[in-house]
Amino acid sequence: MRVLYLTNKPIFPLVDGGCVAMHQFLKCLLNAGYNVKNFTISTPKHPFEINKYPSKLSTIIQPEGYYIDTRLSAINAAKSLLINSSYNIDRFHSIELEKIIIDYINKNECEIVIMESIFFAHYVKQIKKKCNVKVLLRSHNVEHEIWEKLATNESNPLKKIYLNKLAKNLKKVELSTLPQFDGVFCISKLDKNKFKSYLPNINYATIPLTIDRSQINSDYSIQRFFHIGSMNWKPNIESVNLLINDIFPKIRNLLPDAELILAGSNMPKEIESNTAKGIKVLGYIEDLSSFMASNGIMIVPLKSGSGVRVKLLEGLSLGVPIVTTSQGAEGIESTLSDSTKRTMIIEDEIENIIAASVNLFQNQELRSELGENGKKLIQSKYQIEPVTNKIIEFIKHIS
Description:
alpha/beta; Rossmann fold; 15 helices
């Protein structure tokens, strides 16, 4: 079966959780035996560089990048707001790329098109009109919810109004586009149920992320905190600011020798290392597994966003002890199946996050218990074979 896999940014390098999620899904498609071709949008923030792809994989999927200037434009943003369109999605539309995609589908007799994220919303109608092909969406999250929560957490009145408008327009486009797809892959049951509450008559499937078994294990003796996440995503910026301004200073009052390591691509210049405050900023990390396994406790006080946090799943696979919020743990099981054994600590109030973090810092036995439970969860729920089978069954169902 010929599958055209459209990604809204290059899969490689694996600079963030979204790239990791796409790579893992691609591995499932190839494991299913499909003939996969990858077209990706190349942007100023995420440029397409063929040499960043593993050579063997490049030979198989023959990735091609098409440049779209997605940089923010006040004029274009205003136009989108005036016509009640979604500027978040409008930035990714190119009539030229649309024609290229349609030509490729027809010339190569593709049977399935899989679009990675709702950012391809404007392409669906013309592809369905001009091609005899099934079009599926792979949704990482309920996109409009991210902006609704950002608006809720925004204190600046003018920004709040603007974010609410963005969220409203994005929701309208997201929900009006979903019925055009032949099916929707959701990463979690929670996302699936949210979409079904709006649009119950669409073909949905819950296709969780897969996480590779790691040969690296977390060192439970390490007493240190870390946060890792791409800093071009607003919920991560919000999370880090909360950490360095409200949470970690209070942890340091109780644990004067505690350290906080901040890592992730696109780290803002204003977030700097501060030895006196116990904060060290590293930026982009090449060897993610080694970093996470050797830096103690992952602390993720996420307050907005939607979908599954890939970095948490990667941490669980390594046995990293984790403190996060309900938002951070969204879509991930916090206990082992048929058990009350915790895989991570979940707290939403700042004072409770601080207390849980201090307790975990002081208790190696608890760090070990959480870490081992996390590894068991990944081994039982997030391996490639059962997920591949779910993909095959769903595609057969909609074909």
